[in-house]
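Need fresh eyes. Consider my entry:
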Amino acid sequence: MSTGILSAMAQEQIGLVAHLDEARIERHAGREFQVGHRQGRQVVLALSRIGKVAAATTASALIERFGVRRIVFTGVAGGLHPDVRVGDTVIGTEFIQHDMDASPIFPRFEVPLYGRARFAADAALTRCLAQAAQAVLADGGALDEATRERFGLGAPRRVHQGLIASGDRFVSGADEAARLRAALPDALAVEMEAAAVAQVCHAHGVPFAAVRNISDRADDQAHVDFGAYIEDVAGRQARALIAALLPLLPA
């Protein structure tokens, strides 16, 4: 069974393609797809690019052109919930588009003609992702001591599961983050792609799961060292997490 691994930016997939066997590049819809095998399983790596439309386009291509039968999204997000700290891992159990508002015709957040605002992650795939994430953190999070100190990650990190909110905005202001918390108090994290991919996978009947490393608190400091964080922390953890995940998946 083929697995699609999506990330928005190249730094979030650093090193993954090097571990594919018999890797080849296929180009479609203006994107490059790395097709190969890892640990006896067919894998297709792709960069969704940033935002909901780009992510939905890439997910559709993975399903229709490359025949993947499950999709995992890995990347970074801003923490929303008070219990979520920088360096923590958030695994989505549900996904919502926080900028979807077709009211008064439809309730706020509800996707028109779908009859729902939230799209659920696949339960079995999410369990595997959680198991892999716990294993990576138990092994030090794939980070050396110097890197942990550089980014202030000395305290034990945690794995959370719950709602992830997506929208076509990089949330980087305390006021905007506060408004999101008020509107969606159970949302753990905010990013720009996963809910769109969840909707595509729901339409196609393809299992979907997403994991996000918390790079910031979605506030006025969200831009500080963002590029360095995703390359030196999130990218390394994503590589370790995918390596731990693949053996857990049905072949």
About this structure: The longest strand covers residues 70-79. Helices lie at 52-64, 123-138, 145-150, 174-183, 194-204, 226-245. Residues 126 and 174 are 30 Å apart (CA to CA).
